[in-house]
Amino acid sequence: MSGLSIAIVGAGIGGLTTALTLARQGHSVTLIERRPGFSEVGAGLQLSPNASRILVKLGLGPALRRVATLPERVVVRGISSGRRIGEVALGPYMQQRYGAPYWVVHRADLQTILLDAVRSEAAIRIVTGRKVEEVQDGPEHAQLVWTSSNGTHERLTADVVIGADGVWSKVRRAVGDTTSPIFHGYIAWRATLDRKSAPPELAGNETGLWLGAKGHVVHYPIFSGHLINVVAIEKAKEPVDGWAAPGRAEELLSHYSSAAPALRALLQQPQEWLRWSLFRHPIRCLAQGRIALMGDAAHPVLPFLAQGAALAIEDAATLGAVLAKQPHNVAEALAAYGNHRLERVRRIQAEGRKNGRIYHSGALVSFWRNKIMQMIGPESMSNRYDWIYGFHTPE
């Protein structure tokens, strides 16, 4: 049987990984991106073993090793006191335990690697500057309608349509979910700085996690270790517009006015901050008929477990596995995909919300949180998430 015709809406990390996976299985893929071109979106991201294992299997390991960083540990500190609360083992420990690395990488580097691989596949057609307006399922095929930059409408017919178009997904409506994402009450600030300009105690090969009642800060080296990626979380009553709203450094520094000197020094370095709002959306349906959702279109997760990109990569591998197993019955294959993913992604969503409460807890809870982290130790802190990091694509 010849391969399926597959339309993927959205060319982010998840969409690119899915296109590459499915094209290598012999399917014909049309990858549709709303933006007119590809540019960096965001700064850094974390690729835990459940994701890096999949990318290595796709043959991207050598390219990623040239640009990724392998932090040795996560060092957890109190925002105000600066005292070390505990550690989480990464580096060699993760590689040995899970058989795959825990990488941190510049998002643009990962996107470039994926895009180069996608462009090398003759079975993938990339269409940019198209806004998908409508998706319809049908017994023999699915259809979508897009608007091009000059306002013309075009219709595409495919055996499968995959929505990888983010938290505000248009494709989600086609599986019967018309509800809107809910603002979770947090805004994330992101920036990068030259590693040489960071305070010496924060410039090592490690991830820093600073916990406080009003928010938390994460930082780690990216861009082959030359830059440091910083993400600061702030509680907020109202969301900001878009994925990259400019932020005034003075406003962030005011929010973290009581931070420890080393963290304050780090936050004072970036010249430009960008902000995005954190949204949640309960999972209602991952697939229906010939249409499937993946990544944030299916299950947006809060960044308190660093699993957003990893889950999208897992989705891509799982979609590939179920379509390879049942190529003659698309609806059954996609239903199997939904069944494989539903419980896991719901659990990770819930764990992310729980982590947010723990990170931002008040004095009494944080006292016991700190005691427990000190007692558990770095390796056991990692082992708590065996169920996440040990993921393997279903056979």
From TrEMBL:
It comes from Microvirga guangxiensis. Keywords: FAD, Flavoprotein, Monooxygenase, Oxidoreductase. This is Salicylate hydroxylase. InterPro entries: FAD-bd, FAD-dep_Monooxygenase_BioMet, FAD/NAD-bd_sf. Residues 6-348 form the FAD-binding domain. Its cofactor is FAD. Gene3D superfamilies: FAD/NAD(P)-binding domain (3.50.50.60). GO terms for molecular function: FAD binding; monooxygenase activity. It comes from the Bacteria. The keyword Endoplasmic reticulum does not apply.
